[in-house]
């Protein structure tokens, strides 16, 4: 779909009732994200440290594309040392599955041609709460050189916008129990850490 971003329809008009029902609405998440090309203005860490005086950079938030995979893997390496930055056939297969999955969206923040942050949103059909879906946020990471500049907050806000567009009743995320700085960040973004307790089971 080719549209001038300045002429895009309001989100509420994109999500209308149709004979195909809820799955159709989730399928439109990618369409809505493609229409949303948000540009923000920030000062990179180098500017704050006085290395580049008088320079202000801007970043945009958009859906990730296949050519972004190497940059995404590099970011995931900052998220955890267990994540390999080497592009493997398994990554390409996983990306094809991501693109084919309705309601699954990987967003990136781009600054001057560099991917500096990302978040993944999964919108899940649901039979409770009036059959309203809910969102799961994962893989929230900002490049170490660009943190504390509003990039992570902007990525979460865009994920929340997409969730609200399909009338999701909540978004939720998990954070490592030993990451108090991350917990404080999520609280500043409006997430409550006391209403639920997360449990998980992992396999090698």
From TrEMBL:
Classification of source organism: Bacteria, Thermotogati, Deinococcota, Deinococci, Deinococcales
Entry-linked PROSITE patterns: GNAT
Name of the protein described by the UniProt record: L-amino acid N-acyltransferase YncA
CDD domains the record matches: NAT_SF
Entry GO MF terms: acyltransferase activity, transferring groups other than amino-acyl groups
Gene3D superfamilies xrefs: 3.40.630.30
One Pfam family in the UniProt entry: Acetyltransf_1
Domain N-acetyltransferase: from-to ranges: 59-204
Xref: InterPro entries: Acyl_CoA_acyltransferase, Bact_Acetyltransf, GNAT_dom
Alphabetic keyword roster: Acyltransferase, Transferase
Naturally occurring in which organism (per UniProt): Deinococcus hopiensis KR-140
Domain of life: Bacteria
